[in-house]
Amino acid sequence: MKRMGMLFRAKANKALDRAEDPRETLDYSYQKQLELLQKVRRGVADVATSRKRLELQLNQLQGQSAKLEDQGRKALALGREDLAREALARRSSLQQQVSDLEVQHQTLQGEEEKLTLAAQRLQAKVDAFRTKKETIKATYTAAQAQTRIAESFSGISEEMSDVGLAIQRAEDKTAQLQARAGAIDELLASGALDDRSGLGSKDDIQAELDRLSGGTDVELELQRMKAELAGGTSAQQPAIEGGAPGTAQPPQTQHRFDKQ
Q1: Is 28 within the bounds of a domain?
Q2: What is the separation of C-alpha 74 from the centre of its chain, rounded to a whole number of angstroms?
Q3: Distance of alpha carbon 163 from alpha carbon 173, whole angstroms
Q4: For the chain, what is the largest distance between any 2 Cα atoms, rounded to a whole number of angstroms?
Q5: Which listed site, 55, 119, 125, 220, has its alpha carbon 20 to 30 Å from 247?
Q6: Distance CA 69, CA 101 (A)
């Protein structure tokens, strides 16, 4: 079971590697960073809104406090000390609220500054990531194109190799046919083969002339040999008959040869 699980995970991982496009992964990461940056900016806006609301409340309370102070002065001027005391008591209560709101305002202002700085830093990181992302995508696209071109050249090389082998086989077959044709021509010229195709064969008259010419050559050679034999016999005849050596005798068979 463990092996099956490992095999399944390995095949799934390989399938994911084939299906994964780094450019899509980079775009997805960039989108997530933009969403995070948007949340930070929204937080800054919320804090700024709260700070602005506190500022409005502070301005309102400070206005009321100033009004109560003015009422207290007028009451004293009119000899109404009791009214002046009431006005000052209310003003004191408002001053406590103003102090609390000022503390909250300072806290919100500090948080706003921190969030604004964080948003600026995150914005810089997102911009840097976007630049790097586009660079990586361009490099990956170029590498992918180069790979496809290399694969195309590889396919062309293999195809040209096959074409080269076909050309070599064609040349070998052509040379073999040429050699065979040359051999057949030589055999036909020598008479070892009889050309029955009618192409390039001699006509009947030429064949008969060649036969007669060949026969004449044989007869001439035969007469020459007979003459040499006759000459040798006439030179030996006086020695056998007791005649003087060197006496020339007419050949006895010359007329027979001539008749023939």
Answers
A1: yes
A2: 94
A3: 15
A4: 212
A5: 220
A6: 20
Which DSSP string corresponds to 201-259? ---HHHHHHHHHHHHHHHHHHHHHHHHHHHHHHHHHHHHHHTPPTT-----SSHHHHHH
What is the spatial distance between Cα 115 and Cα 48, in angstroms, rounded to a whole number?
A: 10
Per the CB < 8 A criterion, the answer to whether 137 and 26 are in contact is yes
Tell me, what's the pLDDT at 160? 63
CB 129 within 8 A of CB 28: no
Q: Tens digits of per-residue pLDDT, 115-165?
A: 899 899 999 999 999 999 899 888 888 888 888 887 676 666 666 666 667
Last residue of a domain, one of 127, 154, 181: 154
Range of the domain at 209: 205-233
Task: Retrieve residue 244's tokens.
Answer: 């003087």
C-alpha 211/C-alpha 154 separation (Å) is 68
For the chain, what is the mean pLDDT?
76
Mean pLDDT of 222-247: 63
Q: What is the pTM of this model?
A: 0.46
Distance CA 215, CA 63 (A): 156
Find where tokens 């192409």 sit: 199
What residue spans of the chain are helical by DSSP H?
2-19, 22-77, 81-190, 204-241, 254-259
Q: How many domains does the chain have?
A: 2
pLDDT tens per residue across span 162-214: 666 777 777 788 888 888 777 777 776 766 655 555 544 555 676 666 666 66
The count of C-alpha atoms lying within 13 angstroms of the C-alpha of 229, restricted to the half-sphere facing its C-beta, is: 9
pLDDT digits (tens, 9 = 90+) for 10-22: 655 555 556 567 8
C-alpha dihedral (97, 98, 103, 105), degrees to nearest 10: 120
